[in-house]
Amino acid sequence: MQEPFSLSETRVEEIFIGEASQYSQSRKSFWSAIRLAPPNSWGGYYRKKLQTVYSHLIPQGARVLELGCAEGNLLAALRPAEGVGIDFCPEAIKKARAAHPNLKFLLADVHDLDIGHADFDYIILSDLVNDLWDVQTVLDRVQPLCAPHTRLIFNFYSHLWNIPLRIAQKLGIATPNLPQNWLTQHDMANLLEISGFEPLRIWEEVIAPLPVPLLSNVANRYFAKIPPLRYAAMANFALARPFIKPRIANPSVSVVVAARNESGHIEELMARIPEMGGGTEIIFVEGNSTDDTYEVIERCMAAHSDRNCKLLKQPGKGKGDAVRAGFGIAKGDILMILDADITVPPEDLPRFYKLMVSGDAEFVNGVRLVYPMEDDAMRFANLMGNKFFSWAFSWLLGQPIRDTLCGTKVLWRTDYQRIADNRSYFGDFDPFGDFDLLFGAARLNLKIMEVPIRYRARRYGETNISRWRHGWLLLRMVVFAARRIKFV
Questions:
Q1: Are residues 29 and 68 in the same domain?
Q2: Could you tell me if 287 and 191 lie in one domain?
Q3: Which of 63, 75, 94, 353 is 20 to 30 Å from 389 by CA-CA measure?
Q4: Which of 188, 215, 242 finishes a domain?
C-alpha cells in the first residue's frame, strides 16, 4: 500500500521561505528597472495629492518612519524632525540619499525589518500593502517600533480603479505595476486588529487623479468626502494605533475648575472632588466674578489644607481662557476639566480616569444626552442644538462625538502640550475651550471615548452661556472646522 504524501514542518517552512524570497526578488528587480512617472503625469499628480493628505495628518517636526519609501519624496515633504525611510530597492535608496541628505535611508526588506526599539510618532506605508508578500508579518515587525502615541497610516488603491489604471499604464501616464494584493477596507481593518493595532479611521481620498484645472481640486477636496461619490475614490486610507498601555504607573491628576460667580458651589466642590491615582491637584481659576467667589475659594483652601489646591485669577475672558490658564500650571499626568456649577457630578471623574489609565482612551468626553435629565437642567432649544452639533462634529472629526459641549473633558498632559504646540493651525477661535480641545485631539488622531453622566440642574447662580449668540458662533465654528479638518 502506497504511503500518503507528507512533508515535514521544516520542509514546509523551507518552501514558504523560498516562495517569499522569489516573490521579493521579482519585485525588487521590477522596481529597480522602473522610473516613476513624471510630475505632470497621472502618477505624478497622484503622488502630490498624497503628499497633501499626509501633510494634514502629520504635523511638521514629528519623528516619522516610512516603509517602502522609494525615492523619499513623501517623507521629505512631511518635514520631520527625524525621518527614516526603508526600501528594498538599492537604486531607490541611492536616489533618496542624494536628494534628501538630511534624512536617513536604510536598504532592507520590510518583511525582515529589524532596527531595534525606536518610538516613532508616525509610521507610514504609502501604496505598499498591496505589494507585500505577507502584510501581517510586516505589521508584527512594526510593533516594537511603536509607543502608545504612535500612529500607523496606510494608503492603498481601490480595485475599482483596476481597468482605468491599466489603460493609464499602457498610455505611459501612470507608473507600471505587478499583480497586486486585493485588499478592501475591511481586510485592512481585520489585518490591523489581528496584528495588535486598533483602526481609528478608514476613509477615501483622490477621486480625480488627473490634473484638470479647477475640476480636480473641487472633486478631490469635496466630492471625495461626500457619500456616495466618495466610494469612487482611488485611494483608501487607514489610520491605526497600537494596543499598548500607557507607560505611566499610577498617574497623578490635575482637576481644573473654572469658577465665575460660583461662590455657592465651592465648599461642595472641595468636599466632593475625589482623590485619584498618584494624587489629585485641584486648580481653581477664578474668572473675575461679581460675587465673592475668589474669597470663598481662599477660605475653603485654608480650611482644607490637606488637599493639594491652587488658585489663580483668570488673565482673560471666557471658559477657554480659564482652562488654558489652569492647564498651564498643572502638574498632574492627566488633566481634567470640571464645571464649577456641579451639573456634572464630581464622583464621576474616576470613570474618566479608569479609561485613561487602561489605555482604552486617550481623550475622554462626557455625554449628558444618554440618561434622563433633571427638570430645567437643559432647555429644549439647547438640547436640539447639542444633538445637531454632535452629528456635525462626529462627521467632521471622523469619530463619534455625542455631546460636544459637555464641560468635562480629560486628556494626558503630554497630549495637551502637543495640542497647544499646534494651536496655530486652528487659531484662537473658541471661547468655550471645548472645541479647541476636540479639534486638537482629532488633528492628533487621539482615540476619543465618551462617558455617559447624569446631568444635574444648576442650584446656584445663572449660566454664563447665551444660547442664541453662542449658537451662532458654533455654526461659524462648524464651517471653520469643515475647512480645516474635513475639506482639506
A1: yes
A2: no
A3: 353
A4: 242
Q: Are 114 and 86 in contact (CB under 8 A)?
A: no
CA atoms within 13 A on the CB side of 404: 31
Stated as kind and residue range, the H or E segment containing 337 is strand 334-337
Q: Look at 366 and 12; give whichever has higher pLDDT.
A: 366
Distance between CA 422 and CA 409 in Å, rounded? 19
Residue type, 235: A
Left, alpha or beta for 302 (phi > 0: left; psi -120 to 50: alpha)? alpha
Is residue 81 in a domain? yes
- Looking at 242, 267, 302, which one is the last position of a domain? 242
Beta-carbon contacts of 311 under 8 Å, excluding residues fewer than 6 positions away, are: 283, 284, 286, 294, 297, 298, 301
Per-residue pLDDT of 367-400, as tens digits, reads 887 776 655 555 666 667 777 877 888 888 888 8
| Distance (Å, whole) CA 192 – CA 451 | 26
Cell numbers of 363, please?
Answer: 481623550
The confidence score (pLDDT) of residue 152 equals: 97
Q: Are strands 82-87 and 104-107 parallel, antiparallel or unpaired?
A: parallel
Q: Which long-range contacts (CB under 8 A, 24 or more apart) does 313-316 make?
A: 313/285, 313/286, 313/288, 314/258, 314/260, 314/285, 314/286, 314/287, 314/288
Instruction: Note whether 304 and 339 are same-domain residues.
Output: yes
Q: Name the band, by pLDDT with cuts 50, 70 and 90, for residue 178.
A: confident
* C-alpha–C-alpha distance, residues 221 and 208, integer Å: 10
Determine contact, residues 175/126, Cβ cutoff 8 Å.
Answer: no
pLDDT, position 326? 97
Three cell numbers at 242? 497600537
Radius of gyration of the chain (CA): 26
- Ramachandran region, residue 126 (left: φ > 0; alpha: ψ -120 to 50; beta: rest): beta
Lowest mean pLDDT: which of 139-153, 174-188, 280-294, 454-468? 454-468
The answer to whether 203 and 398 have CB atoms below 8 angstroms apart is: yes
* 264 and 222 within one domain: no
On whether the CB atoms of residues 263 and 296 are closer than 8 A, the answer is: yes
What's the chain's average pLDDT? 87
233 and 285 together in one domain: no
Same domain, 183 and 295: no
pLDDT digits (tens, 9 = 90+) for 268-320: 999 999 999 999 999 999 999 999 999 999 999 999 999 999 999 999 988 99
What are the pLDDT digits (tens) for 28-62? 888 877 766 556 566 688 899 999 999 999 999 99
SS3 string, 275-318, reads: CCCCCEEEEEEECCCCCCHHHHHHHHHHHCCCCEEEEEECCCCC
Which residue range is the domain that position 58 belongs to?
A: 9-242
**CB contact at 8 A, 125 and 99:** no
- Please say whether the beta carbons of 390 and 334 come within 8 A: no
